[in-house]
Amino acid sequence: MIIPNFTKPNAQSHITLGKKADPKNINSQNDSKRV
Amino acid sequence: MRHRLVLCNQEQALWDEYFMLLLQHYEELSLPYDFEMSFGFIGNPILQGNALVAIDPDTGLAVAALGFVFGTGADRFENAQICQVEAVCISQAYRHTMLFYAMLRRFAHSMAEQYPDTSAIQFWSPADRCDLRRLFGKFCDKIKTNEKSFGRIDLFQTDVPRLLAYSARRGNRKGKEHLS
């Protein structure tokens, strides 16, 4: 098992993080699903 | 008992009360969407709207809440003259018409005073709830019913003058008829 070490300065570069979601965009999409 | 009716933008600490109340009563909210979508609608007033909260003077806790935003998703919330109510909740023990109409009246006055540019107030409701259709039909027009993957939903619409007139009229009546 590989346990990621988040204390390493560049640890996050080895992890695929999703694009930070824009709440306004998500809410806009959700609301449009009702129309 | 007279509850304290406050808008969350006047007391920022009330946002916690608003959010906790709605999540604690999530099953009773009658939101027909999946949790992720419902969560977004409940949270949206915190990001880009406001909420009215009724506080029990004895406990200091929220017993009812009404969250709303300005604009609709289709217009990316640019059409701010439309107020969209996203969630309404009254705790079971406090669920009677007096509190409901007191909230409606306070909400209508707040809209008239703080958001005078609002041209319409609208909200979506499950179409299969006859009790809700009957209740909302008293002070709103049913604009349309949509068939969606998550179920049938009604779009209700009203405006501030109509809500003011209706809630003022109801406020003059006595009674403790329970809401379903």
Characterise the protein shown here.
The complex is a heterodimer of chains A (35) and B (180). Chain A contains one helix and no strands. Chain A has 35 residues and is mainly α. Chain A starts with 22 loop residues before the first helix and ends with a helix. Chain A has one helix at residues 23-32. Chain A is rod-shaped, with a radius of gyration of 17 Å. With 180 residues, chain B is α+β, with helices and mostly antiparallel strands. Chain B has a single domain, classed as Aminopeptidase. Chain B contains five helices and seven strands. Chain B has helices spanning 14-24, 35-48, 97-114, 130-136, 160-171, and strands at residues 4-7, 49-55, 62-70, 82-90, 120-126, 141-148, 151-158. Chain B has a seven-stranded mixed sheet. In chain B, helix 3 (97-114) runs antiparallel to helix 5 (160-171). Chain B is globular, with a radius of gyration of 15 Å. Classes of the chains: A mainly alpha (35), B alpha+beta (180). Chains A and B meet through helix 1 of A and helix 2 of B.
Short key terms for the protein model shown above:
heterodimer; A: 35 residues; mainly alpha; 1 helix; 29% helix; rod-shaped; B: 180 residues; alpha+beta; Aminopeptidase; seven-stranded mixed sheet; 5 helices; 7 strands; globular; disordered C terminus
Question: Care to give the gist of this entry?
Answer:
Chain A has 35 residues and is mostly helical.
Major β-sheet of chain A, in short?
A: none
Biggest pleated sheet of chain B: 7 strands, mixed
Broad structural category of chain B: alpha+beta
User: Largest protein interface?
Assistant: A-B, 12 and 20 residues
| CATH topology assignment of chain B | Aminopeptidase
Q: Structural class given helices, strands, pairing of chain A?
A: mainly alpha
Cα separation of the termini of chain B: 20 Å
Oligomer status: heterodimer
Q: Report the span from N to C terminus of chain A.
A: 47 Å
- Fraction of helical residues of chain A: 25-40%
Choose one word for the global shape of chain B.
globular
